[in-house]
Amino acid sequence: MKHVPVLMREVLEVFAGKKLRTFFDGTLGAAGHANAILQAHPEIEKYIGCDRDPRAHELSSGVLAPWKEKVKFVRGSYAEMIRLVDGCIDGFLIDVGVSSMQLDERERGFSFMGDAPLDMRMDPEGKLTAEIIVNRYSEADLAKIFYEYGEERRSRQVAKAIVEARRKKRIRTTAELVHIIKPVATKGRLHPATLVFQALRIAVNDELGQLEKGIDGAIEKLCPGGRIAVISFHSLEDRIVKNHFRDAKDKVKVLTKKPIGPSAEEIRENPRSRSSKLRAAEAL
Ligand SMILES: C[S@@+](CC[C@H](N)C(=O)[O-])C[C@H]1O[C@@H](n2cnc3c(N)ncnc32)[C@H](O)[C@@H]1O
After folding, report:
1. Which pTM was predicted?
2. What domains are there in the chain, each with its CATH number?
């Protein structure tokens, strides 16, 4: 499935009227935002597209071909890579989470559909996998991950079911995990495995830690008047963005008093956008 970028118009509005020379896209993915930003800002001299998933380079190179002289692909975590950039940056974008292509690549274990090894690493060279978490973490730590990162109300029951099952046999695949958690996880509008899978993905990729470090690193690198836009999908992520902007109030002015969400039309066309929130700030 093609990845449909969220809050596109709203992201473009953050940078509208700004003269951008250098742009750092921390989560390039399939370059949907990158393509639109490069079209709207022909003055961009250097567009650094960062992704920790090496597949993003392949997926985005076709779309970005018209600008190949300006685009530099860097592989790695945006929290680390931002520190290595020379000079200051006029625009910075983070669009967190998983891409539709990552979900579709079943063998990577992000999806609870089908059967695949319990992996979930965005960076295939990362050390931590979902299999390690599920089989080694204590029951209390599992419950905490499911509650905090997944907002799974039945986190303790899910953790208990996992610990009981792994006593008999190591849990190796997504289908095995779904089979174990389905009877005990919250049942509602979503598939019962949705929240647990989301929580594991956030933990495997240290997504909240990345966001904290990445925002702080980006703020340090912004040119005076440069802008940062962050799209998040989870209340914990949105809180991190809000607090880190607020804590940097001697360095940035917040441009979004409240987070900007998708229009009804966008939600209708792309239900994945439902929980997205955009916040932006400008360097003083
Ligand atoms: C939601 S997609 C981005 C989609 C992109 N904005 C577009 O329009 O196609 C998120 C992407 O960010 C990458 N990613 C997530 N966390 C990352 C991190 N800490 N550092 C670098 N890339 C990351 C994922 O591998 C994925 O490709």
Report:
1. 0.96
2. 8-100+207-283 (3.40.50.150), 129-204 (1.10.150.170)
